[in-house]
Each structure stands twice: as structure tokens, then as C-alpha cells.
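Field log, afternoon session.

UNIT: design team B
ACTIVITY: writing a sequence onto a fixed backbone
BACKBONE:
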């Protein structure tokens, strides 16, 4: 029995690693963990995350279940289809157990730990020893590209990335052993990525998984004996896993696909320029090992990325050990399959980086031309989710090579040429940064950017660059020095703990820049204007805050407090509303056509910084910073009988007529290919106003068209008493129905066939997969495992 095998049995490395990962995670998030009044700051979380999640939690707690429609942004939109956040993801259960801002923060904490655990599992799946797996897990858990997304509050993206190593570990076990349970687990993991619901990370990581399957078939299976049938089973199982994953995620996918034909996106969101718009700039390849050269946070970033709130930094030790693995593989220092995996990981990392560079290389352009759905995504840089996974696993293989060399009678077999060639560029940059950071930044500015580049290196960046340069040089020296010492039996195997500690220090030093905690009260407490609106705004009434008057409320802020807005900030805008008010520059349109659109939207509340004359507006509240809340004095009805009907045959004509209508409550513009409903007379009052259901009490003195200040969408159904009635599109973007004379109850209900079908698919497929995994796990436990890594 070898020395390493004895130590593996004596030392429960996995439990030590998990305990260490938990301790590191709690230490990293200590400011949040120890103060229950603080939240983890995230720019996108404050913009969309808190409002969208808060609305969801409120609806579920009210007993109405998952809302399918939200009345709170852009006058009303489908909710689930907007990809509002991880509402179906397992960790969302925390939202109902503690204050929302604490629950969201704890999901970040949880997934940092899970990322480490999943990376450890991945390395063991590739038959690396426990300490090699610990190197992999440590390299992944705080890697810059994942951790830095804390600054944007992009939890879904972080969750999806944390699941990538788990998916690769399950796929490797399935391909190697052919057992159905691993592919079933893979289906659940990719389905969970759909629930995150960051579809770009899910899609790009699935491309990497598919590439690994293709490599397995071409390299491993091709060398096996047997006919062509040996290719069929692994390919079919992998394909089946992705199909089942789509079924698991159907409750999120199908409503979105159902919505897409009815929404407008900006004209620029098509074509190759859009698909490559958020690529990794070539100059920022240095961010993988020298994050302070170009910078990343807004106050110090001077590169060409339009929005840079993250870093790609992978850490000195992980990169050094990854290069060590490649150099050893080049000389046959690993077993045959290990060498082949290392070459796949190295090639996959290079290919992934070339893809992430977007239009700067042909790789992304070729993928755009031949791979389905690439054109729908705009951030090729997100392929870095696969790259950081590959590099972490390569680092694990690097340490595995050390342990194998320690046992090998021939000693360490390594290509020093490969190591020197691969490491020299990184070390030269790091040395230049350590010795002359100002000179390196000046050289980068003059050599990499055109003359007159508007952004200049921040003076304060030089000190940080110098420190990082020293750390990279020290990390490489430490990693390679300890690796050689252990391989040659100069020191014990537990010297790896020094590398793990250095890696944690290095990655936490950079990643910690993107972690900020703030008092929850400062960001989420209701101010005097919000309090007034919550007390006085009636159901159906909407707020219009003039966003161009900065600083103003965040576009979706009212949703967090249960208030409806005429504006918003979402990925999609419904076609009728976009045509009427404009998907972009909505403030300008509302300002120009306020007299027409405000009554139709039932926008009775105006927030502005400009004093308004007394008359149609009544001042209701003042904010200490100068914001003013006004209410329309006139009693604008939410539903009304217009005195006359203007029938048109097209949506474009309806928009033109509506915008030019000087009496929007007196004349209704109705889109119809036949005879329009007659003009009626009467009154209507709201009885019940819920997201998916609006009930009106209507008294029609004369039967005819009832116009309602609710956005039109084909998912809405209407009933007058117990009879279903068709809904017409009125005034370009709103609903209208014909009501007969007399007193009636009018009910509008929102339905989504995509959600209903998706829910059944999700429930049935999830139950089936979980049940299969439970049974398979029980059977597997009754049979002793031959391979300790499995």
C-alpha cells in the first residue's frame, strides 16, 4: 500500500476540505453574516432583483401562488416570462424564512460554498486524489469571474456558474461508467441552471459539456473495441439528459417562449454586432492574471468595455499549477487518460477564451454562423464560466502530477520548455507591474488603444498593480517550488496546505473588492413619497416618475412597495405598449403626450423635481432631497364607456389616432377588421384588483364598449357575469369589451398555456428523475464501489 493511499484512509480530506471551505466562506462574507441589518450591495439587484423578488414573495404569502402577470411595470406585463430571477430555484425557499434582503445575501454565501464543494466533486469524478480535488475546489470557489459578480448583484449568473463543475463531474461519471443515474443527475443540474434563470451561462456551459461529449466519443470511445454501436449509447444518454433538463426547466422556458412573439426589443438587438457586443476586449486578457492593469470597477476602469463591473482574475497558484499540469502531460508524467483530459482542458480553455473575445477572433463568428441560438445572446465573454472551470480542474491535475511523481521511481517527468514558454509571458507582465506599474500602464495605453483614448489609467491603480505583480510572481514561485519539493520528496504532501492558504488569500484579496455590504434601511426603507403613495394610491392607479430628472427613483423601485408604474426597466416590452409610448425614451413620449396617455394609463401620480402650478395637480408630499409628489385632481376612471368609437384596421393607424386624440376618455380607438362595438354609457368601479385577476362592478345605462386602463395581451380572458366575451385592443395598447345594458360583474383573468404545460412537465420530469436517483442510489449503496473516486 502506497504512502499516499495510507494517508487518504487516515485523513478524511473531504470533510476537512468542506469544513475549511465553509470557514473561508463565512470569513469572506463576515461583514454580512455578523450584521443582520445589512444587505449585500448589488447594482442590478437593487434595480430589478429586490422589486421582482419582493413582488413574488408578497403574492405567494398572500395565498395567490406564483403570479403570472405583474401590474407594476410598464403598465403591466407577464411576470414569469420576464425571467424575473430564481423564483423556481431551490434556494429561493430562503425568501420565505427570513427578510428578503437577508435571504438573497445568504444565497450568495451558500453558492460560494457550493461552488467549492461541486469543484471538489468534479475533480474526484475525474479520479483525482482528495488533496488534488481540494486544490481544484479552492481554485474555483473564489475565482474572480464568479465572485466579482457580487458587485452587480447578479445572483442567477453566480448560481449557474457554481453548478458548472457539478455538471461536468456528473457527465464524466456517466460517460466513464455508463450508469443512467449520472445522466439523470446531469439533467437535474442543467434544469436547475434554467431556473437560475441565467440562460446565457446555462447555454454556454451546455456547449462546453457537449464539446466534452464529442471529445469523449472521438478520443476515448474511438480507441475501444467494438462496432459503431459503442458510440450510440453515450451520445444518446447525453442528448437525453439535455432533453430532460429542458423538461425540468419547462415551467420557466415555455412562458418565455410564449411571450417572445409579443414583445419588442431594441432595433440594435439583432445581428452579429449585437451577439458580440459584450465580449472580452483583447487588451483585457491580462485580467486573467493581472486584474489591476486595466482595472474593473467603474471608478478605476479605463478599458473599452461599455460596462465593466467584474474581473476575470483566476489567481496565481491555480494558473501556475494548471501550466504545470500541461508541462507534465507533455512529457507523459500522467497516465494516458489523464494526459488526454489535460489536453482537452487546455484546448478547451484556449478555445473558450477565443470565443469570449467575440469578433476579435473567428471562433465566435463561426459559432454564430453554425450554432443554434447564439444570435440570441449578447455576451460571448460569459464563456469564461467554462474556462474558469477548466483552469481549476487543470490546477487539480497539476497537483495530481506532483503526487504521481512522488511515487514514480523515475521521478518528475516535465517539459521545462513548455513550462517556460507558457509561464514566461505571465511572469514578464507581473514583473513589469511589480517593478514599474506606471510604465506598464503607460505602455498599455500607448500600444493597445488609439491616440486620444478618452479613458486614462487612474493614478491610484499603480499601487494596486504593483502589489498584484508581486503576488503573481510570489504565487508562481511558491506553486512551482512546493510542487518540485513535494515531487522530489523534499517536503511532505501536506505542504499543499500552504498553496491552498495562499490561493484563498490571493483570490479573496481581489474578489473582496466586489463585495460590499450596506445598511438595508438606507436602500429599502420607504420615504415620505412612497409612504404617501402606499396610503393614498387606489388599486389600478399608476405612478409616473420622470426618470431623466436625476437622481430619481430606480425604474422598478415602485414594484418593491406594491405600487404600479407607467415606466420600468425590463428585458422586454409588450409590442402594443412599445408602439404607443416607445420602448426607449419613454419619458420624452409621456411628456409630449401626457394629456393623452396619462388618462389612458390611469397615471394619477406624478413625481418630479419641478414645481407644478396649482390646478389640475395637487401637491401631496415632499421628499427632503427635493422630489415632489403630485396627484391629478380630476377623477379619471380606471374603466369607462367612451362616448364615440373610432374604428381602425391596423395597429400603426391605432397608435397614430390615439396619439392625436385630444379627448382620450371621450373617443376610443378600436382595432377591428369588422364592425366595431357601439358606444355605450354607464359607470364601472373596481371590486377586486389582483395581479392575475381584475373584477369590475359595471352598470351600463346603454350597452356598448367598456374601455379599461389595462394593457392588452392575448393571455387575458374576460367574462361578463358567467359569459366569456372577446377582448378588443383599444387605444393602441389597452383592453376593451362590449358590455350589455344593465348591472354586471366583469372579470378579467390572465392565463398562460406555456406556464400550465411547463408546470406539468417540470413536476412530472422532476419527480421521475428524483425518484429514479433515489432508487439508483439505494441500489448503488448495496454494491461496494470498486473505485474510491466514484
Amino acid at each position: 500500500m502506497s504512502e499516499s493511499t495510507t494517508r487518504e484512509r487516515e485523513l478524511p480530506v473531504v470533510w476537512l476540505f468542506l469544513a475549511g471551505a465553509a470557514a473561508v466562506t463565512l470569513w469572506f462574507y463576515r461583514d454580512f453574516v455578523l450584521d443582520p441589518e445589512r444587505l449585500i450591495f448589488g447594482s442590478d439587484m437593487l434595480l430589478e432583483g429586490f422589486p421582482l423578488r419582493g413582488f413574488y414573495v408578497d403574492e405567494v404569502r398572500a395565498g395567490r401562488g406564483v403570479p403570472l402577470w405583474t401590474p407594476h411595470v410598464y403598465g403591466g406585463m407577464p411576470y414569469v416570462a420576464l425571467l424575473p430571477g430564481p423564483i423556481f430555484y431551490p434556494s429561493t425557499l430562503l425568501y420565505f424564512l427570513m427578510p428578503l434582503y437577508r435571504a438573497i445575501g445568504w444565497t450568495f454565501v451558500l453558492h460560494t460554498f457550493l461552488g467549492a464543494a461541486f469543484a471538489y466533486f468534479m475533480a474526484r469524478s475525474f479520479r483525482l486524489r482528495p488533496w488534488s480535488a481540494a486544490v481544484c475546489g479552492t481554485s474555483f470557489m473564489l475565482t474572480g469571474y464568479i465572485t466579482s459578480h457580487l458587485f452587480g448583484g447578479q445572483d442567477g449568473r453566480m448560481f449557474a456558474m457554481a453548478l458548472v463543475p457539478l455538471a461536468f463531474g456528473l457527465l464524466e461519471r456517466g460517460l466513464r461508467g455508463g450508469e443512467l443515474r449520472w445522466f439523470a443527475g446531469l439533467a437535474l443540474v442543467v434544469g436547475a441552471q434554467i431556473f437560475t434563470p441565467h440562460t446565457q451561462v446555462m447555454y454556454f456551459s451546455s456547449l462546453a459539456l457537449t464539446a466534452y461529449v464529442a471529445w469523449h466519443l472521438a478520443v476515448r470511445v474511438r480507441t475501444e473495441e467494438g462496432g459503431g454501436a459503442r458510440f450510440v449509447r453515450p451520445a444518446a444518454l447525453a442528448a437525453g439528459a439535455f432533453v430532460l433538463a429542458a423538461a425540468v426547466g419547462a415551467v420557466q422556458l415555455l412562458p418565455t417562449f410564449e411571450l417572445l412573439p409579443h414583445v419588442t426589443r431594441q432595433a440594435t438587438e439583432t445581428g452579429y454586432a449585437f451577439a458580440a457586443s459584450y465580449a472580452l476586449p483583447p487588451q483585457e486578457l491580462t485580467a486573467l492574471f493581472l486584474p489591476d492593469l486595466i482595472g474593473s470597477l467603474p471608478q478605476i476602469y479605463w478599458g473599452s468595455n461599455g460596462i465593466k463591473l467584474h474581473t476575470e482574475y483566476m489567481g496565481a497558484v491555480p494558473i501556475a499549477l494548471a501550466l504545470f499540469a500541461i508541462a507534465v502531460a507533455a512529457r507523459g508524467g500522467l497516465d494516458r487518460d489523464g494526459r488526454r483530459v489535460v489536453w482537452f482542458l487546455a484546448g478547451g480553455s484556449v478555445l473558450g477564451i477565443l470565443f469570449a473575445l467575440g469578433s476579435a477572433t473567428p471562433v465566435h463568428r463561426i459559432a454564430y454562423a453554425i450554432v443554434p441560438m447564439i444570435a440570441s445572446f449578447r455576451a460571448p465573454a460569459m464563456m469564461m464560466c467554462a474556462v474558469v472551470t477548466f483552469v481549476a480542474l487543470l490546477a487539480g491535475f497539476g497537483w495530481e502530477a506532483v503526487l504521481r511523481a512522488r511515487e514514480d521511481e523515475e521521478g518528475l517527468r516535465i517539459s521545462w520548455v513548455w513550462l517556460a514558454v507558457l509561464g514566461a509571458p505571465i511572469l514578464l507582465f507581473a514583473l513589469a507591474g511589480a517593478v514599474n506599474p506606471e510604465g506598464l500602464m503607460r505602455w498599455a495605453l500607448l500600444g493597445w488603444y488609439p491616440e486620444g483614448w478618452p479613458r486614462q489609467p487612474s493614478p491610484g491603480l499603480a499601487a494596486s498593480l504593483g502589489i498584484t505583480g508581486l503576488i503573481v510572481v510570489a504565487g508562481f514561485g511558491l506553486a512551482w517550488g512546493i510542487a518540485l519539493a513535494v515531487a522530489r520528496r523534499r517536503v511532505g504532501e501536506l505542504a499543499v496546505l500552504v498553496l491552498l492558504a495562499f490561493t484563498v488569500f490571493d483570490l479573496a484579496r481581489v474578489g473582496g473588492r466586489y463585495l460590499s455590504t450596506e445598511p438595508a434601511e438606507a436602500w429599502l426603507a420607504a420615504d415620505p413619497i412612497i409612504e404617501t403613495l402606499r396610503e393614498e394610491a387606489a388599486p389600478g392607479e399608476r405612478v409616473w416618475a420622470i426618470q431623466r430628472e436625476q437622481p430619481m427613483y430606480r425604474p422598478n423601485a415602485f414594484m418593491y412597495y406594491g405600487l404600479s408604474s407607467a415606466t420600468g426597466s425590463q428585458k422586454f416590452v409588450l409590442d402594443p405598449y412599445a408602439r404607443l409610448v416607445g420602448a426607449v425614451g419613454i419619458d420624452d413620449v409621456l411628456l409630449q403626450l401626457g394629456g393623452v396617455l396619462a388618462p389612458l394609463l390611469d397615471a394619477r401620480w406624478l413625481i418630479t423635481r419641478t414645481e407644478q402650478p396649482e390646478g389640475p395637480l395637487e401637491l401631496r408630499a415632499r421628499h427632503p432631497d427635493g422630489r415632489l409628489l403630485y396627484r391629478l385632481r380630476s377623477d379619471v376612471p380606471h374603466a369607462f364607456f367612451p362616448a364615440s368609437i373610432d374604428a381602425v384596421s391596423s395597429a400603426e393607424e391605432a397608435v397614430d389616432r390615439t396619439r392625436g386624440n385630444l379627448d382620450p376618455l371621450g373617443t376610443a380607438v378600436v382595432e377591428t377588421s369588422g364592425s366595431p362595438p357601439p358606444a355605450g354609457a354607464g359607470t364601472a368601479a373596481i371590486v377586486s384588483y389582483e395581479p392575475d385577476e381584475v373584477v369590475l362592478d359595471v352598470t351600463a345605462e346603454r350597452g356598448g364598449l367598456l374601455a379599461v386602463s389595462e394593457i392588452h395581451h392575448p393571455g387575458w380572458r374576460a367574462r361578463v357575469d358567467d359569459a366569456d366575451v372577446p377582448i378588443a385592443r383599444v387605444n393602441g395598447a389597452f383592453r376593451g369589451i362590449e358590455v350589455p345594458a344593465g348591472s354586471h360583474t366583469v372579470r378579467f383573468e390572465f392565463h398562460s398555456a406555456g406556464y400550465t404545460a411547463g408546470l406539468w412537465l417540470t413536476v412530472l420530469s422532476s419527480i421521475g428523475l428524483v425518484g429514479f436517483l433515489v432508487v439508483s442510489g439505494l441500489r448503488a449503496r448495496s454494491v461496494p464501489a470498486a473505485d474510491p473516486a466514484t
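LOG NOTE: The two ends are 20 Å apart (CA to CA).
NEXT ACTIVITY: expression trials, pending approval
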